[in-house]
Amino acid sequence: MHEGRYRKNTPELQLAAKELRRAMTDAEQVLWKALRGRGVGGVRFRRQHPVGRFVLDFYCATAKLCIELDGDIHDEQVDRDEARSEALAAGGYRVLRFRNEEVLHSLPDVLARIAAALH
Fold first, then answer.
1. What does the alpha-carbon distance between residue 5 and residue 17 come to, in Å, rounded to a whole number?
2. d(CA 86, CA 110)
3. What is the DSSP string of 51-105?
4. How many domains are there within the chain?
5. Is residue 10 helix, strand or coil?
6. Is residue 3 part of a domain?
7. Is residue 28 part of a domain?
8. Does residue 82 carry a pLDDT above 50?
9. Which domain covers residue 112, as residue numbers?
């Protein structure tokens, strides 16, 4: 394992990621349409990608950038989300969080913040 790498995962986690790709939320679908095919910053993103014990909504390996979309349920799990972000940061990953509403109603702003984080 490389230093700063937090990649090991289980077959169960890989299966969960596959299921999450099949059941993407509306916001995830909108953002994926913008990110796929090197659509932002000329870099490749993966969707519902397992890293360690987590499945990340979107992940750019080149920049070690994780993008998480938060729906209403995340209002009830703020501490859990913070702990997740801290664990990823300890592995050398950067995490950007957006509300689903931001993606659905202000996509250009979301994409600009992602592009800025890539550079």
1. 19
2. 22
3. ETTEEEEEEETTTTEEEEEE-GGGGG-HHHHHHHHHHHHHTT-EEEEEEHHHHHH
4. 1
5. coil
6. no
7. yes
8. yes
9. 11-118
Confidence (pTM)? 0.82
Q: Pull the structure tokens for residue 66.
A: 């994780």
At residue 5 the predicted structure's pLDDT band, cuts being 50, 70 and 90, is very low
**Per-residue pLDDT at 8:** 66
CB atoms within 10 A of CB 105: 11
Residue 18 inside a domain? The answer is: yes
User: In this predicted model, what pLDDT tens digit does every residue of 42-70 receive, in sequence order?
Assistant: 999 999 888 888 889 999 999 999 999 98
Q: Compare 112 and 2 and report the one with higher pLDDT.
A: 112
Helix (H) or strand (E) holding 45: none
> For residue 110, what is the domain's CATH number?
3.40.960.10
**Residue reference for tokens 């360690």:** 52
- In a domain, residue 6? The reply is no
Q: What is the mean pLDDT of residues 67-84?
A: 80
Nearest-angstrom CA–CA distance, 97 and 117: 12
Q: Does an H or E element contain 48, and which?
A: strand 46-51
